[in-house]
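Query structure, 187 tokens:
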């Protein structure tokens, strides 16, 4: 006699085996009696399709449930990756199966695409005017402020092209920062 096994924790159908004959009960009753171990039944589970599994209910019957374990989706409000690990769980409606683009700050799914909801200046998330000012200062330092100052000191009252180039580039950086602050109403 064929018996059908289920997992003791998830109750999902695992496979079949042949039941063993119980020699003592068979001798007593003079009829063939089979031993059925725990988490097994002679009841055949239903057929399942793609993304489905058979699961035992209360050791009484089988049911067909969704099986998307291992599939990933992203939370539409946070961009957090979620992997389905349990039977019966489906991807919630409206949550995408593609990840937000790398480097996107505070992504949210809007209809058919990810949108960035954070305010980003020069590739960095900002929330205040001070954040933009700090980035602007770092850009000016990276531009070569120290070297330009040294060259200007060495030139004295003579023309200094390095200093002049630095001052022009610095003005552009400061203007971009100020315009960004105003455009995004940062305080």
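Result returned for the query:
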């Amino acid at each position: 006699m064929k018996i059908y096994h289920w997992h003791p924790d998830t109750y999902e159908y695992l496979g079949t085996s042949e039941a063993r004959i119980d020699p003592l009960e068979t001798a007593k009753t003079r009829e063939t009696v089979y031993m059925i171990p725990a988490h097994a039944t002679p009841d055949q589970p239903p057929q399942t399709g793609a993304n489905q599994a058979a699961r035992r209910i209360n050791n009484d019957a089988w049911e067909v449930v969704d099986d998307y374990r291992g599939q990933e989706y992203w939370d539409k409000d946070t961009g957090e990756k979620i992997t389905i690990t349990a039977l019966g769980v489906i991807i919630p409606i409206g949550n995408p199966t593609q990840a937000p683009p790398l480097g996107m700050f505070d992504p949210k799914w809007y209809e058919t695409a990810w949108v960035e909801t954070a305010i980003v200046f020069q590739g960095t998330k900002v929330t205040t005017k001070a954040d933009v000012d700090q980035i602007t200062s770092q850009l000016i330092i990276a531009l070569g402020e120290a070297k330009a100052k040294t060259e200007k000191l060495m030139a004295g009252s003579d023309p200094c092209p390095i200093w002049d180039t630095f001052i022009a580039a610095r003005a552009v950086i400061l203007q971009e920062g100020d315009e960004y602050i105003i455009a995004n109403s940062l305080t």
